[in-house]
Amino acid sequence: MHTMWKGTISFGLVNIPVKLHAATENKDIKLRQLHEECKSPVEYEKRCPVCEREIDSKEIVKAYEYAKNKFVVLDKEDLDQLKKEQEDKAVEIMDFVKLEEIDPIYFERSYFISPSEGGTKAYSLLRQALGDTGKIGIAKIIIRSKEQLAIVRVYENTLVMETIHYPDEVRSVQDVPNVPEETELSKKELSTAVTLIDQLTAEFDPEKYKDDYRTALMELIEAKKNNEEVTTAKDKPKPDNVTNLMDALEKSLEKTKGPKKKKTTKKKTKTTTAGKKKTS
After folding, report:
1. Distance CA 95, CA 83 (A)
2. Alpha carbons 8 and 17: distance in angstroms, whole number
3. 20-56 pLDDT, tens per residue?
4. What is the pTM of this model?
């Protein structure tokens, strides 16, 4: 399993060298966009609308837009230094709370925690202590240049870290439109709804639930592939170096010619046999 973060988790004076591994994966089927006419993949280029040209990633800087079209540019060196200062800190468990005290709306992403070399005993100690007390730990961690609030808990026999949103990242329910106030309901309506919920109540079994859309989409793709309803993208035409060279040479010649000079006609003078000058 790929290691995506290495560091130390501490609680009190106990330090545990650990590694994080993504606990979930995205199973979405990725579809490409093709040009309908030639069935070639559509490209998306980074282009500056002012300079009117495609730009390289080396020409791109990060900035914060504090007002419309007004930016504070952040140098890579500043961001790297700030990131390093935070990453060098150990992940400290600040508090221990009960899992049921945290509403699921706060949860974001899960990571399995494994002990690094020399951390097996301390890892086992924290796992056992969390299991015996039924508590979870609240900590902070820097992941992908962002400081995350996180919890540490036991999942089966493994420690899991789950990033959670900060309170100001969860939008207020007061901003949700058209939410009705308390509505008067008849006893029969409520009784029927409760009965229906009771009849559909069961123990949670995650294996029971499948992604029907993903399964149907893959079946459709396989059927088309088996019926040879496929297409092959054409190779991108290679530039003709000879033609390009001639174009460059011709443009260079045009630049070196400079402005054309106006032709001037000089009057010729002839001498007659009589010794007199005659203008022609």
Report:
1. 24
2. 4
3. 998 988 888 888 888 888 888 888 888 888 888 888 8
4. 0.68
